Amino acid sequence: MNENIHMSQQDKLSFENTEIAFRHSTNTDLNRAYWLFRVINVNFLVKIGPPITNFAIKIGVPIKGLIKATIFKHFCGGETIAECNQTIRNLADGGVGTILDYSIEGEDDETVFDNTRNEIIRTIERASQGKAIPLTVFKVTGVGRFSLLEKLDEGLKLNVDEQMEWQRVQDRVLAICEMAHSEGVPVMIDAEESWIQKTIDNLALNMMRFFNKEKAIVYNTYQLYRHDKLASLITDYSIAEDEQFLLGAKIVRGAYMEKERKRAEERAYPSPIQPDKAATDRDYNDALVFCADHVDQIAFVAGTHNEDSCRLLADLLDKKNINHKNPHVYFSQLLGMSDNLSFNLANAKYNVAKYVPYGPIKAVLPYLFRRAQENTAIAGQMSRELSLIVKEKKRRAN
């Protein structure tokens, strides 16, 4: 009998329980979150904020302190791994794991790529020190040039210098995955834009062939807002089954929708994005069902802020008598968002981990701006966050 299936009344899963959701938050934390989400809710401010902020930093206006005390503090763990320690402890106290996410973006320098590889390896070493960091993550564009990946995806011939450059990218990815394997720490390879994704998919699958024989170490990411990605997941499972390795899969809806649609329109090719949200939701939930049906061969992370999908997976595990602590199943959300999902799932003894971005403020700004812009694009998401914060503020006042 699965001891985790029959929960006590206090462990009964409810996404409305704000006492559990915000137990880790002080009144100051709640007030900061309240005002932050109110500002994010104003589309105009989110649109003008990035250029104003970038300009201010460029000309030397001292606003880094303000950024660090507000949006950075809410959505990021710190500027270094050491600065993330308090966040790691706070999450662990609520039964939630940490995924350290070194959020450097858009670099094109070989030295930066080497430094990023070294930093990702440091996150794996930090994760190996205990159970508080169950998963790690990196982007291939953190260790390789975007335009090189683009050329590979297009099937264009590389010149000699580019061939050497591509070998260095593969070597960096291999070094990260080798460290993850030696420390027994799973590492997720993030999904990116569709016009470089085929190269990333091939690289991820090759790493799984090397390192996922006994345990799921390497995970690829499937963006289900693409209409072809449920089929990709099923195909990759067949490959893993035939070649006898475990498939690692992070299941997300996706992060580049507007950019994808715009590029497809400009270049007159069919958009890879689903026709509507209903189609995305259907494929996402079907992917969860597929993974749960093959949980012995697929280790998967459900990255979602969607309550219906979280409820579906939680119910699936109970229905299939899959232990809540099965290491092949994780729920995941971003730091600073959907605490009602993360902490209530953890309270019901499911595996949960939060993405905790970190890095120098200036380098992490693109990530922060994207978070704000994505949030305003999600109908009702900010209103939901605000309503839960207001509910908890009222509860504490009584």
Describe this structure in words.
The chain has helices at 18-21, 27-40, 43-58, 64-69, 71-75, 85-93, 110-127, 146-153, 160-183, 194-211, 229-243, 257-266, 277-293, 307-319, 339-347, 361-377, 381-397, and strands at 97-102, 136-138, 187-189, 218-223, 247-252, 298-303, 329-334, 352-358. Helix 11 runs parallel beside helix 13. Helix content is 55%, strand content 11%. The termini are far apart. An eight-stranded parallel beta sheet has the order 1-8-7-6-5-4-3-2, with helices on one face. It contains 17 helices and eight strands. It has 398 residues and is α/β, with parallel strands linked by helices. The longest helix is centred in the middle third of the chain and has 24 residues, at 160-183.
Strand order of the largest sheet: 1-8-7-6-5-4-3-2
Distance between the termini: 41 Å
Order of helical and strand elements: HHHHHHEHEHHEHEHEHHEHEHEHH
Number of strands: 8
What does the oligomeric state look like here? single chain
- Radius of gyration of CA atoms, rounded to a whole number: 21 Å
| Shape annotation | globular
Provide the β-strand percentage band.
5-15%
What would the average pLDDT be, to the nearest integer? Answer: 89
